[in-house]
Structure formats: C-alpha cells, structure tokens
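Worked Example 4.2. Consider the chain below.
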Amino acid sequence: MTLNSWMYWVYLLHIVNIIRGHENLSRRNATSVSQSSDYRNQTAKYGIDGITTQTEYFCAHTAVNQSEAWFQVDLGEPFSLKTIRIVYRDEGYWRPYRFRYFYLDLSNSSVNGSTTTDRKRCYQDNTTVPDLPPSIINITCPFVARYVIVQNDYFGNDTHSTGPILEICEIEIFGCSINCNGECETTGYCAECNTNLWGENCIQSCPDHCNGGICNRTTGSCDFGCRNGTWGIFCNLTCSTNCADDVCEIKNGSCVNGCKGNFDGEKCEVCDAFHYGENCKESCGQGCINNTCFANNGTCSLGCVENFVYPKCNSEYHLMTKSHEETNKAPYIGVGIGVFLLLIFVLIGAIAVHRVFLKEKHLAAELVDCKRINPKIDINQPFLMTILESNYL
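Applying the procedure from the previous section yields the following structure tokens:
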C-alpha cells in the first residue's frame, strides 16, 4: 500500500467517525448558501451540492479583485454543531494558495448583519508563504449557531493572488437539533432528547409534572414518576388533598404514605372507622362498640356497649331513665293540683248553698211568728220581707 492510499484510508476513517452520530446539516432542504461575489457562474450552490471533486469547475468561486471574500451557510435555525469539514480547490498544479489566513466564524446573525467581533471564532489559519494550508480540513466547533461563515481578507503578494478569493468545493456541517441530548443520526433523528422534550425530533414538551422533567421519548408518558401532588401516566391528575405528604401512586392515585387527619381509604376520601361528619371532625360516641360508627350519620355500626343508648351511644341508660321518670311525674302532679282546686271550688259552693238554705228557713220561721202574734198582718207585703231579710245580711 502506497503512502497516498494509506493516508486516504486514514482520512476516510476519520470522516466516518465525524459523521457517525451527527447529521450533515448542509444537505438539509432548509439550508441556503451565499457568497460575497461570483466568479463566472460558479455560485455558492456548488459548495453544498455533495460533490467533493477539487477541480475549479466543481467549486464555488468568488470574483477576483474584491476587497473581501466570504462564503456563508444559513441553516435556517440554530443547531448544536460539532464538526465542520471544508474541501478546498486543489488541482495539483493549482494549490490552495488563496486559502491562506482564512477564518471560520459562527453566528446567529448573517454576515451582513454582524461583525467579526460579534461572532464566535472557531478557526484561524496562520499559514505563511511558502507553506500552504491543507486543502481538506476538519474543524471541531462545538457551539450553537445558525450561520457558518468562511471569510478571507488575505491580500497576498505571491503570483497567485488577485485580492481575497475563496474557492470552496464542498462544506459539510455536522451537528444535531438543539433539542438533542448529545448525538443524533445522520437523518437528524436525536439519539436522546434534552430534558423536558420528547418526540422524533425532540420538539414536543414533556408534561409539566413529570418527575425531573423527563418523559418517555416515544410516548411522552412520565415513566420516572410524577412530582408530588399528581398522578397518571402523564401526571395530569391530582392526588387527593387528604394524602399524607401529597404523594400518591402514579398508576391509580392511591395515597402512598397514608392519610392526613381522620381520613381513610386508598385515596383518603372517606372517614376512618372512628370519625364521621364534615371533614371527619366528629368522633364516634363513647359508648359505641369498638368506638366505630357510620361516617354519614355517626350511628354506632356495631351497636352500643352496656348501659348506653342507641343510635349514637353518647348517653348512659340510667341517666336517661331518671330523666324519663322525672318527666313522667309531671302530668300526675298537674292532675293533683287540678283536683285540689276543684274540691275547693265545690266546698265553697256547698257552703254558699247551705247559707241560702238556712236563710230561707229562718225567714219562714219569722213569718210564722209574726202571723201568730198578729193574725191581721199580711205576710206577703214586700216591705215586711225587706225588713226580715235585712236582719240576715
């Protein structure tokens, strides 16, 4: 194997390693190119046509006698770049003389919208006469940018210079979407997505509550769990507010660390066996068997212990009995008082009747005596009755 063929295979292996894991962004449909001027019809498009032949007519070529020469690749949007490969004109008899002192910049603004101080300088050639720069060069440039700019301001005093000129046969820009986490395939498909992203091109956002912002690359589901307070495959469901520590099972929403307060159940949505009422704040009756009751109304679920009164078993039986006895006596007392008052009224009535009877009896006796003493007296005279009655008032 000759030296030249050995070098070719070393170079080819190097290129394969560069390409592996990254896409040639120059070949994307959205990529466009331009240059400072055109020599004949050798426009900037020759620089990204996929032909790496290094003879003049296969290369983009800027015009002679210009004050500057630049070649720009617009990727259409920022990408995470890795390596840039430039293939320059080299025909054996025409070496890359005009490639001396070129520099490679990255920018998010076009060449006409930026200055060299605004850009990121990735490479600067410092080759001096009589030496020549390499006609094929691979430049590592791990930055994020939209524009790749090759520029040359060299005014050489050698016979091959007619002002700054660029003769770029092919430029290959290897990188991935800024949404990729590391490498991507040559098709641009991300091997892995950055945190919070998923989908083929890693352009879809993971659900807000995925643990650590990480979700399944293919489905967007939260495979690594949810942030506290949420559950479901996309962590879009809310845990019960009664879950302790606001943590619940991602698959079914059951409370992992138990319940707050007096709540119970898988999702802590019912009262425990010992409480009832709104927010489970009421305790079951002290006389409930096992201290348990129904959550909706506090009725003792197993009945009462001895001497307590169902349904809530809050009061003891003997206290309730005494209260009932006292309550039952009241009607009898009322009846007794009524009878007593009735007897008094009857007695008073009887006395009054008896007095009237005695009065009439005495009047009759008096009239008899008057008639006996004086037979001529008319006992039916009203004045005589009045006189006699006045004696009994």
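The helical segments are 3-19, 317-373, 382-390. Residues 1-20, 321-325 have pLDDT under 50 and may be disordered. Compare this with Example 4.1 before moving on.
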